[in-house]
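Students often ask why we bother encoding 3D structure as a string. The short answer is that it lets us treat folding as translation between two languages. Here is a chain of 115 residues written in the first language.
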Amino acid sequence: MTLHGIKSLFANASPDFLARNTGKAPKLERDIGDAPLEKKKVQRRASQKFLIRVTSIRKRLIDEDNLCEKYAVDLCRYASGGAFGDEAGETKIETTQRKAEKGEEEKVIIEIYEL
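And here it is in the second language, the structure alphabet:
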């Protein structure tokens, strides 16, 4: 957008705002696509079953179906190189939440157990 276009939209814009928004656009990182998620050959797929327990510690409790444990479990799968899956017969996923104590920060605890 040009300086004239910005001034017409933001008549009271500060000189700093104008300077930051009329310069050369930053060069964006290239799109890496799905490279980190592409299928790789795994050395050994675990044959045992797993229990994955996702505990959300929050200042305000939410509906359990909004905890989005699928995302956390998938991150663990990708980090392990696919050593375990999340199929129903292979992995049991438990989600719980509790209210944060006074001064405790919000966090998610992921525990993985072999059964």
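Translate back mentally: The first strand starts at residue 50 and ends at 58. Keep this in mind for the problem set.
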